Amino acid sequence: MSSTEEEKEGTTTAQLWEAAAQGSLEQVQKLLEAGADICEGNADGMTPLMLAAQSGHAPVVRALLQAGAPWNALNPSGRCAGDYAMEAGHQEAFDALLDAGTQAELILGVVGRQEEKKEVEDGDHGKPYLQQRVEYSEGRLMDEESKGVMMAWEKPLMEAHAKCLCGAGGDILNVGFGMGLVDTAIQGYSSITSHTIIEAHPDVYKRMLETGWGEKPNVHIVFGRWQDVLPQLGTYDGVFFDTYGEFYDDLREFHECLPKLLKEGGVYSYFNGLCATNAFFHVVYCQIVALELAHLGLTTQFIPLPVKECLDEKTWLGVYHKYWQLDTYFLPFCQTKTEEDE
Ligand SMILES: C[S@@+](CC[C@H](N)C(=O)[O-])C[C@H]1O[C@@H](n2cnc3c(N)ncnc32)[C@H](O)[C@@H]1O
């Protein structure tokens, strides 16, 4: 490209930022035809899509998405176009971005997840979690890489999960003991008949036995990976899933077992930490899971819970990965469809 051509492209790109921010659809289309760069950010790293989303110009957002603007581009402050639409309450622009993100992830996300699994198989992630030693300390359960397997700040969330699961009593299944927070909360419901816990880590299992979980009258501990032990289990009124060191594909695989595991009208919930470092990506993954569960015959509602007060400046001290960065937790309340729902 000659320097004159470069200058021209630079000018059209700068004009595109302005047209996108002002919501001038005709101008945006002209500039795209003239070769303006749809991906480039301005001095603040704001792409044309972010600028249009921030001001709620839904037709421009749709035109840019259609022309190939990446829905998931992040600026230096770690925000994407969807974050701007969401924060400003621009519903139409938000819906267009959510739709684009969901469609793209349903198709391309599969490739990304397969890559992730391959990395693990190739050993790029270090020792697999179940082969690492884990250590309990004040308010934490950590793996060998100083990553938080479970942390006490999640206690109110686990109590809220237990409330959803045990509301109707009956037989409850929890996958992943960790610090036993959800299990302790489940034990508080006298309406439950049985309480089954699947746990795969030998150190965690040892801790469960040392702390008396093996002697509780209605508790049945199943030591093993859920992938291996599920076939030996029955059906449940409430199922909770919260493992560690697994990926989205594992969660999906577990979801495929739900039609067999849940009784009619049974309740399912999972620790909703998918993409919890970006608010909009998290919303996209809430939508994807809800769609996937709907295919399996479950309805999903997300109950918003504030988490800001659960965290303080000391929460992440000494923790390698800050796995939660959002202000709101969306607790998934999923239920098998009854005949009335059909
Ligand atoms: C995040 S912790 C669970 C925390 C728990 N919800 C609580 O309230 O304390 C995850 C647990 O899942 C266990 N785990 C990991 N992979 C598993 C698998 N495939 N099957 C069963 N348990 C697994 C881990 O050893 C760990 O104890």
Outline the structure in words.
The chain is of the alpha/beta class and 342 residues long. Helices cover 43% and strands 18% of the residues. It has 12 helices and 10 strands. The strands form 2 sheets. Strands 6-5-4-7-8-10-9 form a 7-stranded mixed sheet, sandwiched between helices. A hairpin with a 5-residue loop joins strand 2 and strand 3. Helix 3 (48-54) packs antiparallel against helix 4 (58-66) and helix 4 (58-66) packs parallel to helix 6 (91-121). The radius of gyration is 23 Å and the shape is elongated. The structure holds S-adenosylmethionine.
- Report the major sheet: 7 strands, mixed
Question: What ligands does this structure carry?
Answer: S-adenosylmethionine
Number of helical elements: 12
Helix content: 40-55%
Organism: Sphagnum troendelagicum
Pfam families: Ank_2
Domain RMT2: 120-342
Protein name: Protein arginine N-methyltransferase 2
Q: Would you kindly provide a brief summary of this structure?
A:
It is built from twelve helices and ten strands. The chain has 342 residues and is an alpha/beta fold.
Question: What descriptors fit this protein?
Answer:
12 helices, 2 domains, seven-stranded mixed β-sheet, alpha/beta, Rossmann fold, Serine Threonine Protein Phosphatase 5, Tetratricopeptide repeat, 43% helix, 342 residues, binds S-adenosylmethionine, three-stranded antiparallel β-sheet
